[in-house]
Amino acid sequence: MISPQPFLSPEKLARHGTRQCGNEIVVDYEKEAKHVSITARKQPHLSAMADVAPVVLNDEILEWPKNDKRRFLHVVYRVGDLDRSIKFYTEAFGMTLLRKKDVPKDKYSSAVLGFGQEESTFVVELIHNYGVENYDIGTGFGHFGISTTDIYQLVETIRAKGGKITQEAGAAEGTTAVVAFVQDLDGYEFELFQRDATPEPLCQVMFHVVDLDRSIEFYEKVQTCLLIFIELSSVRPEEKDTIAMLGYGDDPNQIAILELIYNYDVTEYTKGNAYSHIAISTDDVYKSAEVVKLVTLELGGKIIRQPGPFPGTNTKFTAFEDPEGWKTVLIDNQDFLKGLEE
Fold this sequence. Notes:
The protein is about 20% helix and about 35% strand. The protein is α+β, with helices and mostly antiparallel strands and about 350 residues long. The strands form 3 sheets. Strands 5-6-7-4-16-19-18-17 form an 8-stranded mixed β-sheet. The protein has an 8-stranded mixed β-sheet with strand order 9-10-11-8-12-15-14-13. It has a 3-stranded antiparallel β-sheet with strand order 1-2-3. The chain is globular and about 50 Å long. Catalyzes the conversion of hemimercaptal, formed from methylglyoxal and glutathione, to S-lactoylglutathione. Keywords: Lyase, Metal-binding, Zinc. Its EC number is 4.4.1.5. This is Lactoylglutathione lyase.
């Protein structure tokens, strides 16, 4: 199942001395051009999987996601003080509070914030569990990404509101692309990108994996994320990592993306208890779950919530973990939109 023609981010291509050649990525490495084919990108030094007997997959079921209507809905994570985070995200990042609720029965409260409406924009959902002031982010989670038309002003606003600047705004090494890194009040890191206006200002979620090839194959087959493009799908000796980006669309500057990073020689990460999951829309949670079940037989991972209505609502969903334990929730498109109207 090969994805459409890849579109590579000019920022990181320029930063790491790479260029696109048709369907191949050319990476300048030790003065020798390394060519990595999009259709044959297996890298033995990345694979942590032992040889196993092949699993025969049902092609008819696996065809289903190609016609599914999917997009990133929201990313969910926990914070120690919900009101403090709402204030920071609205005043420092410039997000809007879209909804807030308190659920005393389950001892938690939540807030949804974003740069646009939930019907069409990727947003964050913050969760606060009663009595918990601190969470462990772990070593596996990386950062979120925000695009802005004035990165220098945004950095100063974040600084003034109490955020931590971990890398000042400036041109990334080897390119004119301007980026910065900041932390919110709970220690979550955000990469800021200087870009033209985009429909998805909340543009990235990044986490680490120990087997990049397996993760790419899993998300391709599950089609939770289409592999629209690969960035630097070869070694980056100066940073000792390899990255891949996945999303829905053909222009990474106009969509929300999932960035996966493999750090050489790292075989384990901690998940912590802070980051939760990404929610993605689907037209049929039952068919989507069947695809996930088949792929997990071959590559690992597991269904952690069988498809069906969420208790107390009519919203149908299913949830699964990928082979490395990162969680995704698939939510019925129509049920999701109806829920926003209620």
